Amino acid sequence: MESTNRGEYVERRASERLRAQVVMYRGHRTAGRGPVRLTLPSATVTLILGWGDPLQLFHEARSAPESRATWHAMLAGLRTSSVKGGYPGVAEAVEVEFTPLGAYMCLGLPLHHLANDHVHPDEVLGTGWSARLTEQLIATPDWEGRWAVIENALARRMVDAPPPSPVVAEAWSQLRACHGQLSAKDLAATTGRGSRRLQVLFREQIGLPPQSVSRILRFQRALTLPPEACRSLADRATLCGYYDQAHMNRDFRDLVGLTPAQLCVLAESAVSRGNAPIDGRLANVFCH
């Protein structure tokens, strides 16, 4: 937990009963304008429920002027680009980071509808769902109690949820285990399904095709690989499945608009503040 005179930032792993569906929870409490947070491609689906001043997102499209959207409650699917955001004033919020298959079970819709997009949770979970749960969170003053409130709500939604396809579960597990270093052809061979069928299943139950998911996992591996594991950026590129350092540089710039060296500095700063990677993922860093 990080606590300053500007606010508080808390992270917690999901309990055992939801560990397969939920990566972690986050809590924010800001007393004024906080630092800008850069949310990274991380192969997770995010739910945010907040009160007070809304979250402001800054979308940095290369071909269009920067635009901003404000959200008290938000669902965000898997992304192949980064997003900057922050709270302009006094605010509190709870975030849930789902695994893709956990989100598929909890939300009950094809996840390609959320890919590279943000929607209000009520569009998926029903009118009033986010307001009712937010009221319970406001009435619960401590973070541990809030985690219990959110876990109980998610667990109720998953009681009768159909499980994901065993084929997708196996393919997802294999990609996670090798940090995306498995070609679409080899993935199809190991699962016994054709590439086209896997494309359809991944778009429905993960949100993005296997090639895009592999790219995100490879990026996350390069970002979170401990410094002592490689002597140079060239070593890092080789260990993480890139053709060479130039390939890794291009991928980082395309995904987040920064070089590997620049982003690794921000990642090291995040770790020093207690925002360590969980399950090989670093979902966000603070820009300033």
UniProtKB/TrEMBL annotation:
It holds the Pfam family HTH_18. Residues 182-266 form the HTH araC/xylS-type domain. One of its GO terms (molecular function) is DNA-binding transcription factor activity. Keywords: DNA-binding, Transcription, Transcription regulation. Gene3D superfamilies: Homeodomain-like. It comes from the Bacteria. InterPro entries: AraC_XylS_family_regulators (IPR050204), HTH_AraC (IPR018060). The keyword Protein biosynthesis does not apply. This is Helix-turn-helix domain protein.
